[in-house]
Amino acid sequence: MKRIVSILLLIFVISLTACAKRSNDKDIVIIYTTDIHCSIDDVSNSNSLGYAKVSAYKNAMIEDNNYVALADAGDFILGDYIGTISKGSYIIDIMNQIGYDVVTLGNHEFDYGFDQLSSLLSNLNSDIVSCNIKYEGSNENKIDMVKPYVIKTYGKYDVGFVGVTTPNSLSESSPSNFMEDGKYAYSFSSSTTQEFYDCVQSSIDACKNDGADYIILLSHLGYSDVTIFSSKNLIKNINGVDVIMDGHQHLDLNWISCEDKDGKEVRICDAGYKLNEFGKLTIKKDGKLEYDFITDYEGIDQKIADYIGIVRNKSEELGNRVLATSDISLSIFDEEGIRLVRSRETPLGNLIADAYRSITGADIAFVNGGGIRDNLKSGDISFKDIMAIHPYGNTVCIVKASGKQILDLLEMASRLVQSDYKKDGIAIGECGGFLNVSGLRYSIDTSIESTVEVDSNNMFVKVNGARRVNNVMVLENGEYVPLDVNKTYIVASHNYLIQNGGDGLNQLMNNELLPFSEKYDYEVLVEYIVNVLHGNLKDKYSDTEGRITVK
Questions:
Q1: CB 200 within 8 Å of CB 223
Q2: From the CB of residue 211, how many other CB atoms can be counted at a distance below 10 Å?
Q3: Confidence at residue 12, expressed as pLDDT on a 0 to 100 scale
Q4: What is the spatial distance between Cα 150 and Cα 156, in angstroms, rounded to a whole number?
Q5: Per residue in 148-180, pLDDT tens?
Q6: Is 411 helix (H, G, I), strand (E, B) or coil?
Q7: Which residue segments constitute the domains of the chain, with CATH numbers given?
Q8: 529: which DSSP letter?
Q9: Could you tell me what percentage of the chain is helix, strand and coil, using 3-state DSSP and rounding each to the nearest 5?
Q10: So what's the pLDDT on residue 18?
């Protein structure tokens, strides 16, 4: 009898505990940002809410008697000159002033190399989560501070944050950054999609077993099917997640509904680009979830605004130095804000490729669309304007390449292109490795499915069937003639493509570099505008020339 009473008492206590977990003394507000790309205020981007407003909103939520957390889904240290000239350190300083609680890593966090990333993350006063980054080298894991997940306690609720970074980071950043002694030392658990799903599910389960009442997937994947490693595909193959705070594709996803593999509704948000908005999740006292999307806010945290002013002053003298002038403006976007430069010929892409070819004296030049990050304005062009276009600080290289290697480059770069480049206001067929060209013309037949084979790291292996790139013509003595697969051409690009095989374009990595005075990509662009064009861009670059035909 006593044993029965004891069991009943235990059940009663457990029941009371479970009931207590369903109510809290305060609401929990989780604010999240993503893909800020150094857009620290409305000076760097007129549409940016800016960090001072994010901080003010956070403070207002605290004053309203909430538990408050601030999270970021990646790509925060690169994208503007203020990040480039400090190699991300100014951005980390600002984030520390605001007080971020947890972040995950985007693909651009790796662009300064692992030594610099290690230094930046060591100085970031935040938990850093990413469950699918694995160190497989034999020297030193430079990012051992990154954990698969973290659990934060807010009153009676434990909230778990599981981080996920796009496996495409390895090819979208410089692949050589991930190597030790010529071999890959870091991987993203992505040799198969199932391995990727299992890795994420394992961390979700571990987080749940460690006591998390709610699990937030803080991911840098992107929702649409540009890649198989999308958040849309991931959620269909996992369970146990309550919400997804996503990034990577710069979409405006206002907490749309998805179903996980068990049919449970999961809300997903992508809070835009360059801080034009941010997301808000509220876990109410009774445990229910509410979702908000903040696109405007009047408040300003003056302390943060003043600190940003100090940081900006450190870099303004260099940033505002006028380097060139232009008689027209050139955009990488269409009228709806879709990035044309990643799937179509653009005048700005032509200008930059021409700069590479002209200054190096090469036969052909390539520039990847993902390396052209902003528009060229008319009038005076400052250092920071040029750095906004070319923020990575790549060096221009020249190399000998066969006609066959050039064909393979174009085929790999064009594998995602579709007949239309947008649908319902969203970009489709985008690829950061899409090649803008000079000294070359080619066509892409989108009726032919790509037969490009890539390895588990998304690096080119071979073309195993029909080619969608055709009618490849090379400019010789003022006339376009057919590309000769057996001929050797002098090709100009930058170290990201030629030496590092960026975007999986590894065809030229083993080719011998030719002598060329080491110049940064932005230096070559300025030299071309100033010394070759003398600021007269209107005559040649007011429209496209038919270098790339998509049919």
A1: no
A2: 10
A3: 39
A4: 16
A5: 999 999 999 999 999 999 998 987 777 778 888
A6: helix
A7: 23-313 (3.60.21.10), 322-550 (3.90.780.10)
A8: I
A9: 30, 25, 40
A10: 40
